[in-house]
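task queued by scheduler; priority normal; single chain, no ligands, no partner chains; default sampling; output format set to structure tokens
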Amino acid sequence: MMTPNTSWVDAVKELTAKGEAYVLVTILGVRGSAPRDSGTKMVVCANASFDTIGGGHLEHKATKIALDILAKGEQTQHLEHFPLGPKLGQCCGGTTSILFESFASSHINIMLFGAGHVGHAIAPMLAGLPVKLHWVDEREELFPEVAANNTNHVITDNPVDEIASMPANSYYVVLTHNHQRDFDICSAILKREDFKYLGLIGSDTKWKRFQQRFEHRGIKKELVNKIACPVGLSNVPGKLPMEVAVSIVGEIIGLYQADLEPTPNKQGVDWTELKSMIDEQEHNAKKTVQSQEQKDNAELS
């Protein structure tokens, strides 16, 4: 659980695990007097900030810039140069260059129905992935005492009602201890017509019966054909809970990785680019200061 005293290191770790967007704010360079030294960092997310780059107007301005970057929802780098005296009215009088690195949120939402043996094998695997897991079961005693950072334990006697809370293109894994409940859950997901993945545990006989029942209910055949049943990768055999779990999670990873944009060969900002950007912004800042001084002198004469 994060608090205002959480360090930027721990904040990055937890926000990354939860799949939440954040901006890492780093003081790259300092000239003259400034509140904090080069290398100082803070983290800004939608509703909080962690650690500090010195407080005051500089931190207030940096936080506002970080929130503006978050609002765009992009994964990018941005550099700002701050003359602390003329631009921010701080008594330090030095100059500071700050790098803003934004990390987009995870859009992979998974709802896992069932806290039995297979569910318990799947959940820890998903806890280590950049996803948001909603784990649903009516038996509170079956859940771990502490939920993983990216996991929400949903304890309810009406699991079908939870489906409406999920965003479009969500992933669903259905493996409860009750065939009728499995059918009702799948029917509700199919009626939404906006799921990315629907995996249903069961035998070939169970799947044939479900197909017949879906047909009798008038559910579109093309939607029914999107259900993965038996669930998981066919080339990962085995019936042990861990073997089934590896098969299912492997299938999910393959799907969401296929949708991810290719990782660029170059990431971050090269130091030569940073130097060029800093020099340019410092030059512009000096011109601003000189212009203000000339204006002040003109008014005094």
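post-processing summary
- The first strand starts at residue 22 and ends at 31.
- Residues 199 and 228 are 5 Å apart (CA to CA).
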